[in-house]
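stage 2 :: seqdesign
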């Protein structure tokens, strides 16, 4: 028996119904906010992620699925969505009409140690907004995320926010961090030792050393922001207040990807604390330029769909999903197939969820199917019905039977379903 890879799982049954619901809702909300769908390839040149996500990030150094293809090129199966969308925006010159609002959905692949809420194939739902540097766009992006979570029934959401400043601010802050940690770096894990010179901000994000006392006393990036960066951050907070979005400032929030500038944020469920962030993002004003494109400010985020669905399950939130059949056609014998298949087609064209027994089971088998699909109505088709065109519709819950002319059937369903 060949089994699935570690860190992956199959989506079927109730779970697939939930996934579809969550994706559809995300699409609806993105559409309300005037975002359009974009789909980029699952594989890209490795260089895209090295330059985009960052050479020294955990994702690029440890987690990418890299392979050399038959043409001897270095490719990577995408670990996240933002770099690929940015590449598509540059390559297809989508930046010619700004602002540009895009959303994407799909699987990402990271070679992480599988555990609760952490998979090797992870599904993300993300948005990207290009061409606006005004902090009101940061607030809009966050509000889309909060709105989506609220609509799903997740009301207790906190948005953690931080400001990482621009390149100059980060340079000064990195120096301060190096000075703070360097004399005691022996107390830290091997990864942090390496991060000290290459990417000291990531030390703040370390899951191994987070209890070390030097973490608490580390300098705060917020003290290094320029006047303008501070003002912009204050504006984001003000707009979030206007939108009544609950946020907390977390000056250790750095996020795992190098492309962020200024605002970074994470969506946290206050009710489930062992799953990490259910989404995260920020502003990445330098990304397009660093990939060879024009200088265009951008902001975006991604939800981890696996985590969102898992939080819904932990909180036993019932989604308003109705997967029941509207009508099940129960034909007495194969002789009525012509009539039934035409009726079935008619029902489906009119938008009803309808089905019939295609394998001509015995009556007991047919009734079992009615139960399995929990059909609201049953229409029995026998010789008489074919002859007279008068159908008996049985309400499967009240067991009430109604005689309806074939021509009046859709009217009947329109008023009753
Ligand atoms: P990131 O792309 O790292 O900014 O992550 C965005 C969101 O994706 C996170 O907030 C998580 O919800 C989710 N996520 C990241 N890594 C994983 C993973 N290995 N398994 C499941 N979800 C993940």
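stage 2 :: out
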């Amino acid at each position: 028996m060949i089994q699935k890879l570690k860190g992956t799982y199959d989506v079927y049954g109730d779970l697939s119904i939930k996934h579809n619901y969550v994706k559809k809702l995300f699409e609806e909300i993105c559409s309300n906010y005037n975002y359009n769908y974009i789909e980029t390839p699952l594989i890209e040149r490795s260089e895209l992620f090295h330059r985009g996500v960052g050479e020294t990030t955990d994702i690029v150094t440890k987690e990418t699925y890299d392979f050399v293809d038959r043409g001897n090129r270095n490719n990577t199966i995408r670990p996240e969505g933002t770099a690929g969308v940015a590449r598509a925006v540059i390559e297809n010159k989508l930046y010619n009409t700004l602002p540009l609002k895009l959303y994407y959905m799909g699987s990402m692949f990271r070679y992480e140690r599988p555990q609760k809420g952490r998979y090797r194939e992870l599904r993300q739902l993300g948005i990207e907004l290009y061409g606006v540097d005004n902090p009101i766009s940061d607030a809009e992006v966050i509000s889309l995320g909060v709105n989506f979570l609220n609509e799903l029934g997740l009301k207790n959401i906190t948005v953690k926010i931080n400001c990482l400043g621009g390149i100059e601010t980060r340079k000064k802050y990195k120096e301060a961090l190096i000075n703070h940690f360097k004399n005691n770096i022996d107390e830290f894990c091997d990864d942090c030792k390496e991060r000290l010179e290459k990417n000291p901000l990531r030390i703040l994000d370390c899951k191994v050393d987070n209890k070390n006392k030097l973490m608490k006393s580390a300098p705060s990036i917020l003290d290094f922001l320029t006047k303008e960066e501070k003002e912009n951050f204050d504006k984001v907070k003000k707009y979030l207040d206007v939108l009544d979005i609950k946020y907390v400032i977390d000056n250790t929030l750095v996020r795992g990807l190098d492309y962020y500038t200024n605002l970074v944020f994470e969506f946290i469920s206050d009710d489930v604390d062992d799953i990490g962030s259910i989404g995260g993002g920020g502003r990445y004003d330098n990304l397009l330029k660093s990939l060879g494109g024009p200088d265009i400010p951008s902001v975006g985020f991604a939800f981890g769909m696996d985590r969102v669905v898992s939080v819904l399950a932990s909180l036993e939130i019932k989604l308003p999903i109705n997967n029941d059949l509207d009508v099940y056609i129960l034909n007495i014998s194969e002789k009525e197939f012509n009539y039934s298949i035409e009726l079935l087609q008619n029902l489906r064209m009119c938008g009803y969820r309808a089905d019939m027994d295609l394998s001509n089971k015995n009556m007991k088998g047919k009734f079992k199917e009615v139960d399995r699909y929990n059909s609201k109505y049953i229409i029995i088709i026998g010789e008489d019905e074919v002859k007279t065109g008068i159908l008996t519709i049985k309400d499967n819950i009240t067991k009430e039977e109604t005689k309806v002319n074939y021509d009046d059937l859709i009217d009947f369903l329109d008023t009753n379903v």
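stage 3 :: structure notes
- The radius of gyration is 27 Å.
- DSSP finds 15 helices and 16 strands in the chain.
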